[in-house]
Amino acid sequence: MKNNMNKYKAAQTAIKVLPFAALVLLFGIFLAVVSAKGYRLDMYLQIVFNEGVVLAVVATGAIFIYTLGTFDISLGAATLFSATMGVVTYNTTQNVVLMILAIFVSGVACSLVNSLLASVFHIPAFVTTVAMMSVLSAIASQIITTKGGALGGISIPGVVVKPFDNIVFKIVVLAVFFIISYFVFNLTKVGRRQKFIGGNPVCAALTGIESNKYTIIAFVMAGLGVGLGAFLTLVYTPSVTTTTASSIGMNIFIAIVFGGMPISGGARSKIYAAVVGGFSYIVLNNILDLLIESTSGYGITQIISAVFFLIVVYVTSMNYKTNILPR
To answer: Mean pLDDT, to the nearest integer, of 168-196?
Structure first.
C-alpha cells in the first residue's frame, strides 16, 4: 500500500514538472536549430518573445473560462476587434490614453456579451463564442477594408507605441496580470468556486453557488486578457489586418494543454499553464518553421503540431483515469 502511494506521489510530481521540463527542452532545441541554421539568435528570440507574451497574456485570462469546463473560441476575433477599435480611436482622436481605453473597453465588452448570452439566456458558451467569432471578425474586417483601402490594413504611427516596445515593459505587463490572476484564481473564493463549478456543476448548484455570477467574472477576466493582448499586438506591430490574431483562439486551447491543464477544467486547472504552455507552443511552432522551410511547409507544421497536441492530451489524461474522485 505504501509503495503504491509513493508511486502515485511520484507520478503526480512528474506530471506537474513535465510542462516546465518540456519548455526547457523545446527552448534548448530552438537555440540549437537557430545556431545550426546560422540565423541571428537575437532576432528569433525577439520573435518568440513577442508572439509568446501575447498568447500567454490572452491565455491567462482564458484560463478562468476553461476552468468552468467550457471554452471561448472567439478570443482571437475579440483581440482583432479590440486592436481595430484602438487604431480607429487613435486615428480619430490622436490620443493614446483614449486608444488604450477603447482597446480594454472593447475586449471586456466582447466577453460580457458572451457571458450574458451564456448565463442569462442559457445558451451553451461554445455556441455563443462561435457566433461571436463570426460577428466580430466580420465587423473588424469591414472596418479594416473600408478604412485601409487597397492596402487592406490600418495602422497608427510607430512612434505612438515605441515607448512601450521594450522587453522590460512587456515582462512587467505579463507579470502583473499573472499575479493578479493567480491571486484571484488560487487565493479567493472566486477561483475556488469556479473550479468547483467546472468539476461538478450539479453539486456546485446544490451548495448554493450561483454559476451565472462566476461565469460573468470568468469572461471579464478573459476580456482583460484580450485587451492586454490587443494592446501588446499593436505595440509589436502598430497595424492591423484582417488576419491579425486570427489563430489565437485555437492556439490558446492547445497552449493550456501544453501547460499541463486538463481540457475538462475543474479542480486540476492551473493558472501557470497559460504562460508555460503559451511559450512552449510558440517555441515549438518556430522550431518547425525553421526546420520546414518551403511553401508547403505550413501544412506539415500544422500536422506535426496536432500530433504533439494529441500526445500531450493522452499523456496528461492518463493521470486522471482513476476510480477515485479528485479532492
So the answer is: 93
